[in-house]
Write a structure and sequence with these properties.
Blueprint: H1 2-7, H2 12-15, E1 19-26, E2 31-36, E3 41-50, E4 54-61, E5 65-76, E6 79-90, H3 93-102, H4 105-119
Antiparallel strand pairs: 1-2, 2-3, 3-4, 4-5, 5-6
Length: 134
């Protein structure tokens, strides 16, 4: 159920509170553009997939960001353990400063996880979320 929810790229618009538009740009390779509620656009590409347990994507645009996101799903007796890892490097010094001031990665991840829990009709429990920020 979790895999189906996160892999429905266009369908994420229905349950993600931070996204206003998602457009598929290419099917092979899988590339799409997300527009957030502030009008900021990000283009992603799937770089690895092992259905239904692993999905790795990278940011293609904006070009000043080198970022990879990895989702790993581990089936359990009662549900699924979800591990999301993000690696971000900002190449431009001015954008690095702006992102530090205005880009709250931890808040984005919490919003995504909370929205995902709601979409799956699972109770949201912030205490179960573990983050490591460097």
């Amino acid at each position: 159920m979790v895999w189906k929810q996160i892999r429905d790229i266009v369908g994420q618009k229905k349950w993600r509170s931070d996204i206003t538009e998602i457009a598929i740009l290419s099917v092979e390779p899988e590339i799409w553009k997300e527009t957030n509620s502030n009008g900021y656009e990000t283009v992603f590409q799937t770089i690895e997939i092992s259905e239904p347990v692993k999905w790795v994507i990278q940011v293609k645009e904006p070009s000043y960001i080198q970022a990879t996101w990895k989702g790993i799903l581990i089936p359990k007796d009662k549900g699924t353990t979800v591990i999301f890892e993000e690696s971000i490097e900002i190449n431009s010094f001015p954008y690095r400063i702006l992102s530090y001031l205005f880009f709250d990665l931890e808040k984005l991840m919490f919003t995504y996880l909370k929205d995902l829990s709601n979409a799956l009709e699972e109770p949201w429990d912030e205490r179960k979320v573990k983050t490591t920020m460097e």
